Amino acid sequence: MVTGFFKKLTNKLFNSSSKFTKNLDEAVSEVSENEVEEDLEKRALEEKLAKNEIESKEISRSEKSGILQVEDINEKPNPDKDIQKEPKAKSVVKKALDLLRSKPDVRKVLFNDEFLERLEDILISSDVGSKTALKISEKISSRAFGKKIEVMQLKKYLIEEITMILEPIAKPIPLYKSTPQIVLVVGVNGSGKTTTIGKLASQFKMAGKSVMIGAGDTFRAAAIEQLSVWAERVDVPIIKAEQGSDPASLAYKSVEKAIYEKMDLLFIDTAGRLQNKTDLMQELVKVVNVIKKVKNDAPENIILVLDATTGQNIISQVEVFQQMVNVTGIIMTKLDGSAKGGILISVADRFRLPIHAIGVGETLDDLQPFDPEEFATALIGDFRE
What we know:
It is a single chain. It is built from 14 helices and ten strands. It is an alpha/beta fold. The protein folds into two domains: 4-55 and 88-168, no CATH class; 172-369, 3-Layer(aba) Sandwich (Rossmann fold), CATH 3.40.50.300. The radius of gyration is 32 Å and the shape is elongated.
């Protein structure tokens, strides 16, 4: 069943999938055309040698009978004979290549070492890391090496292998019996943390949970205002402080209030911070420690929000945040931007952290649980097209 979100995801990732398909088609064309040219030119050479051998035998027979075949110099010129016609073999090559280019969906390519390298390059150019690209390519090679396969079959293999990487870590945000469940949302500047919190609060509220928000990004007045708008829109309480206030203190008060009000969930926003700013990362550690003072098993969830448009820089973000605050899950946003999408596969394969949801826009419905097969199909392009 094709969902509305899948259609939207497919549209948002169209640039990625169309570029991937284009690169794949070009690789198939290049390898396939080389094969056709080599095969047909070999056949043309064989035909030429056979023809020369026949002519040689005819001349030999003529010499033996004392008759030499010479052109009549008095023969009237024939305009048709003067036109240099394209050699038959070349004509055959050209027609075969034209047919190959005109029917990409039925095109076949020999999966050899050359094509294996091209496939790896295509995956890497789609922001799939080199190690993951090699892993996927080798998996497909084990199924197709030495065989001639169609582009659509190759896409099917790619979708299957990518789905296998993603499926084990596609998990919703877990809910626990101990309440209030504290969900701390972290990430670099501009990753979409504040908007994500608003969407999550709305979705859990609609699911029947009591929800509270803590506006812990006290450095940006705009973040506090933005969360206040979301809180009012979805009708959930919000704990906030003056701009410039201590974020750890705000987190402490938010947890106390959530316990007192017997809330099911408390989402705490945090200020964006670059992973290479040691002092800001230490401040985040302080927030976590302060929360534990109020509720020792909290925060139950530390969700890292990643901006897909930042590409391979995401790898270092995950490494540092995981090291500093023990990230429990990931939400990837902005797949509707200039993102190539492949970075999600690389993150999944390397860190094996749960991927809870992905975002493709600003509206509430643009944040949805992560579906590996839908994502892989939207990224690569449907093999059933």
